[in-house]
Write a structure and sequence with these properties.
This protein has 307 residues and is an alpha+beta fold. The protein has helices at residues 21-34, 49-59, 71-82, 104-108, 115-124, 156-171, 174-185, 241-252; strands at residues 8-12, 39-43, 64-69, 93-98, 126-138, 143-148, 151-155, 192-198, 201-207, 209-213, 231-236, 262-267, 269-275, 280-282, 285-286, 290-306. Strands 1, 2, 3, 4, 5, 6, 8, 9, 13 and 16 form a ten-stranded mixed sheet that branches. It has a six-stranded antiparallel sheet with strand order 12-11-10-7-14-15. It is globular, with a radius of gyration of 19 Å.
Length: 307
């Protein structure tokens, strides 16, 4: 199949918990029609389908692939593209119309959640090559590689995702589920025996959470830049309760690195040799894996449409 280079391939991933799936999409579609956008679109049908659909679009020659979704859908899409057989993947332009509660990567670039402004940005925006993170691991059967754009969390950050997924089945509302998950672990502050290797240094100890980010990782690696070929790492040890509240305030203010409990690093490769009983997520997608994990970065591996 061959498509015109300017034609968009659009993947619509409905926002979790919303009852206005088709109404939301109709507004986006009508506005793209109004603006004269040439596109084909498909709608995801559950977990894993965005990755499959993105791979199909890339394999069939679409050079602009637009994701209507949040961080999780974006993670699925980048994995679909990177695992496709398409040539010159770095020239495929990835576009975002934010449509989730977790839109951290879009917020990093100053992308607006208003769908009209997002479509306008895709029409007139600049194209910039950005980095893609990689995570190599063993899933118990075979060696695999997963890609990410924002960050990997090991420990507390992934635990929030884990509890949110479980709460969402009960509450049915993603934002409320996230709040309940955060409250449920606020006093837990569980530690994990970890062994990391960063820049040749072995880091061992009881650690609460680790964030490895190409972008700012929900504020945990606020100095990360997704186009410099480096990864930022924050290793966070267990705080006392008052330190926890102070740390949360610094996180909200974008100054988490000012906390004495955070050890920051900048590197191109991280090896996680051990993280006892710790959950792991990539851009909000939980990873079914065994340690060790090896995390690295591909410099300017994909093109992103930015404001």
């Amino acid at each position: 199949m061959s498509v015109k280079p300017e034609k968009w391939g659009v993947i619509y991933n409905p926002k979790a918990g919303t009852r206005k799936v088709q109404k939301r999409w109709k507004k986006i579609k009508d506005y793209m029609d109004e603006m004269g956008v040439d596109y084909d679109y498909v709608q995801s049908e559950g977990y894993g389908s965005v990755e499959r659909l993105a791979g199909i679009l890339a394999n069939n020659g679409y050079r602009t692939i637009v994701i209507v979704g949040g961080d999780g859908a974006l993670n699925d899409a980048i994995n679909g593209i990177m695992n496709s057989t398409a040539e010159n993947k770095q020239d495929i332009s990835l576009g975002i119309i934010p449509n989730g509660i977790g839109n951290d990567f879009a917020k990093y670039w100053g992308m607006n959640t208003d769908y009209k402004e997002a479509v306008d940005m895709l029409i007139t925006g600049r194209r910039r090559r950005i980095d893609v993170g990689t995570c190599d691991y063993f899933d118990g059967t075979t060696h695999r590689r997963r890609y990410f754009l924002n960050a990997i969390n090991i420990g507390l950050g992934a635990r929030v995702v884990q509890i949110t997924d479980r709460c969402k089945r009960f509450w049915g509302v993603q934002y409320l589920s996230w709040v309940m998950a955060l409250l449920s672990i606020i006093f837990e502050r569980k530690l994990h025996r970890m062994h990391l290797k960063i820049n040749g240094e072995h880091i061992r100890g009881r650690i609460m959470t680790v964030c490895i980010g190409s972008a700012w990782g929900y504020g945990q690696v606020p100095s990360a830049v997704p186009y410099n070929g480096w990864l930022d790492v924050s290793v966070i040890y267990r705080p006392e309760l008052l330190q926890l509240w102070a740390g949360l305030w610094l996180l909200i203010q974008g100054r988490i690195l000012n906390s004495k409990l955070v050890m920051p690093y900048r590197t191109q490769r991280v090896k996680i040799l051990r993280a006892q009983n710790a959950a792991v997520d990539l851009d909000g997608r939980l990873l079914d894996r065994q340690f060790p994990l090896e995390v690295s970065v591909l410099h300017e591996a994909i093109t992103l449409i930015i404001p």
